[in-house]
Amino acid sequence: MRKELGNYFTLPLVRLLARTPVTPNGLTWAGFALTVGAAALVGTGRLFASGWVVLFAGLFDMLDGELARRTNRTTTFGGVLDSTLDRLSEGVLLLGLLIFYAGERSTAGVVLAGAVLLGSFLVSYIRARAEGAGLSLQEGWFTRAERVIVLALGLLLSRIENVLIIALCLIAVLSFLTAGQRLFHVWWKTRPK
């Protein structure tokens, strides 16, 4: 369902991009650059503006892989680059939140941003480690797409008291639950029969 909904919005853009000299790796780098800009906005307290930039950067993340598949330009390097810059994007954005909350002297905000950083990396790491061991691991209730959407909504609605803190709590809890879910699936697939 999630993939079909994403394709509904991205396929027209991918078809358009396929007729241009834009490359999948170029989209990956552009999305990363936008996220770095969003992190700078977050770190300087421009939360509402950063929410829009995060959503726009997320669009690039949805388009790069699909463009590669549609134009037969999938490469191992492109996949590794995409995955690496996805991790860096999340890290940079959460670093911006850490800077923001440190400036606000919000211990809760700093701790939550740190917890989200750990949880999001753990979700991705378990999948990468499982796939490195030869297992397919597509399971995951709360993956990067959901984390980005909830964080962007938290940023966009941050003028409402505690909404961003609630969004971070939600992301942290669901990320750790998803990490547990993935770890369980790895155990289930590798258990002695």
How would you briefly describe this protein structure?
The protein has 193 residues and is mostly helical.
Give a description of the structure.
The protein has one domain (2-190): CDP-alcohol phosphotransferase transmembrane (TM) domain (Four Helix Bundle (Hemerythrin (Met), subunit A), Up-down Bundle), CATH 1.20.120. The chain contains seven helices and no strands. It has helices at 2-18, 24-43, 47-70, 76-103, 107-132, 144-156, 163-190. Helix 2 runs parallel beside helix 4 (76-103) and helix 4 packs antiparallel against helix 5 (107-132).
Offer a few descriptive terms.
193 residues; mainly alpha; Four Helix Bundle (Hemerythrin (Met), subunit A)
Radius of gyration: 17 Å
Number of strands: 0
What is the CA-CA span between the terminal residues? 32 Å
> CATH class, anyone?
Mainly Alpha
* 3D shape: globular
Beta percentage is under 5%
CATH topology: Four Helix Bundle (Hemerythrin (Met), subunit A)
Largest sheet: number of strands, sense, barrel closure: none
- Going by CATH, the homologous superfamily would be CDP-alcohol phosphotransferase transmembrane (TM) domain
- Put simply, the count of helices is 7
Q: How would you spell out the order of helices and strands?
A: HHHHHHH
Structural class assignment: mainly alpha
Helical residue percent band: over 70%
CATH architectural grouping: Up-down Bundle
How many domains? The number is: 1
Poorly predicted regions are none
